[in-house]
Design goal:
The protein is of the alpha/beta class and 519 residues long. The longest helix has 42 residues, at 473-514.
């Protein structure tokens, strides 16, 4: 019995020894990263080719490495668990979680990221570069109020869940090019201190990009917005590029200040875009863009504004806009009504070859340039309103076509047109085609000039509308009668000459006879 007890006691101690040894060889998750430390780089590395059967990397190991200021390099891995940075202890006095080592997780799968959330008492700071290029974040990515103190790359990153970057502060260059945002995207209140690019990015759902400060250039070229987007109340302190961007739903862009140059060249807006009260302090170009429901109410264009070949597919408003420099609407197509009411053009305004298929309202517009607006080759299919319009120079209407109604037919409007016709007679070639409803209630001369505007220079035979063919018939008849009377008078005068000569000769003959053949 005694031997048995001693044997059992020995077995018990052996089992305890094995247990202690096993536990000594199994570090906690926070310590396992040491197994993958690369002594040459000093980083925690888990790099796979992508075809391995087992590519799992615990998220806790990554956070543990960063908490100990060890850089992380992970590629083609499957991150197990949410990458949660909140366990990193905040440091006083700013109560900030400081991540002071580079973080690189590329071409990998992540369940989610939690670096900062609304109501979070502490703030996360990434002091070194952060790179999630080519990775897929299947869950939510929470970076609320996070500070990125170095360069950041989300190039080609797929945000399958919600992307919350509101209040984040990017102090260095930031790259979101070719990223895909599949759910709600929150970027409001974000600060970009240097250049940021969203080139070719895809926003599938709603985007909140208001109250954003872009101190460097902002590049959204070729980006696609598949739902509504709000860009309002933001500051673009440098260049902004939305060239070739596609907006399939409504765009709210109110009260934005663009300090640098802006490009919307070849952009496409399928729904509506509202720039009300926005300020363009440098040049802006919408060249060849397609805009639906464009609203530029109260917009200020301080430098040149280029709307050349823009296609306005629905009703458009530039009501109360201020154009402070050269403005181009050459070859622009307005499919429906356009309103420029109460707008001011400080410099030259060019509408050469523009097409106004709906009503064109230029009422109470002020054209301040000495040359006046240029509507050469423009087509007005419906009502052209010039009520209370003021122009320092003549309206240039070379080869313009006014097929619709002129509104209103007041002395002010007629005087404006008369001024244009008078000043443009020298060396100009033009023809304006009028329809029946466009007859001017003024002198015949002005009405005919409107329909045959300067066409005689090249020997052009103008097309006079039926409604104007009978205009001034009385004057024509009176003129014809006067001409016939004058011709008759000339004819009568011509017939008296031989008679006078004959009488004179006869008188001389009588006198010769009376004096006996002596004169």
């Amino acid at each position: 019995m005694k031997k048995f007890s001693i044997a059992r006691l020995l077995v018990f101690f052996v089992m305890i020894g094995f247990s202690l040894g096993a536990n000594a060889q199994m570090p906690s998750p926070e310590q396992r990263y040491q197994k993958y430390l690369n002594l040459s780089s000093g980083c925690y590395e888990r790099v796979f080719k992508g075809d391995e059967a087992e590519r799992t990397v615990p998220a806790s190991q990554i956070v543990a490495a960063l908490d100990k200021s060890v850089c992380v390099i992970v590629s083609h891995a499957v991150i197990e668990g949410v990458l949660d940075f909140t366990p990193i202890g905040p440091t006083p006095p700013a109560n900030t979680r400081r991540v002071v080592s580079p973080l690189q997780i590329t071409d990998s799968e992540l369940q989610g990221i939690k670096a900062g959330a609304l109501g979070d008492a502490a703030q996360t700071l990434f002091a070194d570069p952060v790179d999630f290029s080519g990775s897929e974040i299947k869950g939510d990515a929470e970076f609320v109020n996070v500070i990125f103190g170095s360069v950041v790359s989300f190039q080609g990153t797929d945000f399958s869940g919600m992307a919350a970057l509101n209040g984040a502060h990017f102090e260095k260059g930031t790259n979101f090019s070719k990223a895909k945002f599949e759910q709600l995207t929150f970027l409001f209140g974000t600060h970009f201190d240097q250049d940021v690019t969203f080139a070719e990015a895809q926003f599938v759902s709603t985007v909140r990009l208001f109250n954003v400060e872009f101190k460097g250039s902002a590049n959204f070229q070729d980006a696609t917005f598949g739902s509504t987007i709000d860009l309002s109340n933001s500051l673009y302190a440098s260049k902004a590029n939305f060239a070739n961007a596609h907006f399939t739903h409504g765009v709210t862009a109110k009260n934005i200040e663009f300090v640098g140059s802006v490009r919307f060249d070849s952009a496409q807006v399928d729904d509506t875009i509202d720039f009300s009260a926005t300020r363009f302090n440098s040049s802006v170009s919408f060249n060849r863009a397609t805009l639906s429901g464009a609203r530029f109410f109260g917009v200020r264009f301080s430098q040149s504004a280029d709307f050349t070949s823009v296609h306005f597919t629905t009703d458009t408003s530039f009501n109360s806009a201020i154009f402070g420099a050269l403005t181009f609407f050459n070859s622009a197509d307005f499919d429906q009504a356009v309103i420029f009411n109460n707008s001011i053009f400080v410099a030259d305004a060019l509408f050469v070859n523009a097409k106004f298929m709906g009503d064109a309202d230029f009422g109470s517009v002020r054209f301040s340039a000495n040359l006046g607006p240029d509507f050469s080759g423009a087509q007005f299919a419906k009502t052209l309103s010039l009520e209370n319009t003021i122009s320092a120079g003549a309206l240039r209407l070379t080869w313009a076509q006014v097929k619709g109604k002129l509104n209103p037919e007041t002395p002010q409007v007629l005087g404006l047109l008369e001024k244009s016709f008078t000043e443009l007679r020298q060396g100009q070639d033009a023809i304006t085609v009028c329809e029946a409803g466009a007859k001017l209630q003024k002198e015949q001369e002005i009405a005919l000039i409107r329909c045959t505007l300067l066409g005689s220079t090249l020997g052009i035979v103008p097309k006079v509308p039926e409604a104007l063919k009978n205009l001034g018939e009385k004057e024509k008849k009176d003129g014809k009668a006067a001409s016939q009377k004058l011709a008759k008078q000339k004819s009568t005068s011509g017939n008296l000459i031989p008679l006078v000569v004959a009488v004179g000769v006869l008188g001389l003959l009588v006198l010769f006879i009376v004096k006996g053949g002596k004169l």
